[in-house]
Design a protein that fits this description.
Blueprint (H helix, E strand, L loop, with lengths): L1 H31 L4 H4 L13 H14 L21 H32 L5 H21 L7 H9 L2 H8 L2 H13 L4 H25 L1
Helix pairs in contact: 1-4, 1-5, 4-5, 4-6, 4-9, 5-9, 6-7
Length: 217
């Protein structure tokens, strides 16, 4: 129990920031491309309370932690997007979808920079260093998980945008069952074959990006 409490203390802020900024990024890009639905409903916000979902943000991560899952992930309340209000709905859908994982990569980069700076300054706080590492891991997990190509995940939206109209319509019909399909893939540990390579690739890119900072410090 002590280990779980310590784990939650380290991961609480990174998870809240990762999920909040992920959803806010969807809302911001949707507004940029013409749909103000999320903005009008107050979802283009950095207030985590507006995005927290009891099941996806709190209960599922805790259950996965207790069950010893190799990945800890969750989700927030979906940002309301009216794709018909986008200026070019099929194309802009992809940009709106990519905004969330894009925000996670940016946050993973910033947590990596923070970790490098803390080590360069000889900061002795183990808690802060662990939180920085947790920030990187959390955002890489959300980045990879949300890019899985099945609706309603962001990767599913991107694939729908890229498919010809006839196939895109058929593929979109999966959406009501997508969440259950993903849960099954997690349960049978199939999703890790998607997430692990993607997370490793993203990690390599991050290390390349921060190499100049590592060199200077």
């Amino acid at each position: 129990m002590e280990n779980i409490t310590s784990f939650l203390a380290v991961y609480a802020l990174p998870i809240l920031l990762a999920i909040t900024l992920h959803e806010a990024a969807h809302a911001y890009v949707a507004k940029y491309f013409g749909d103000t639905t999320a903005y009008q409903q107050g979802r283009m916000s950095l207030n985590p309370i507006r995005h927290i979902d009891l099941l996806g943000t709190i209960l599922i991560p805790i259950l996965l932690l207790v069950a010893g899952s190799p990945f800890l992930f969750g989700y927030a309340k979906p940002v309301p997007i009216d794709f018909s209000r986008l200026r070019r709905p099929k194309r802009d859908m992809a940009w709106v979808a990519l905004a969330g994982p894009g925000a996670n990569i940016v946050m993973a980069f910033l947590w990596t920079v923070l970790s490098i700076v803390l080590l360069a300054l000889n900061v002795q706080s183990d808690f802060v260093l662990r939180m920085a590492d947790a920030g990187v891991m959390t955002n890489l997990v959300l980045f990879a998980f949300n890019l899985f190509p099945i609706p309603p995940l962001d990767g599913g939206r991107v694939l729908t945008s890229l498919l010809p109209n006839r196939y895109a319509y058929r593929f979109a019909q999966i959406e009501p069952y997508g969440f259950f399909i993903v849960l099954a893939l997690v349960f049978f540990k199939v999703l890790q074959f998607w997430m692990t390579p993607l997370m490793m690739a993203a990690s390599v890119v991050l290390q390349i990006l921060v190499y100049p900072l590592n060199f200077l410090l």
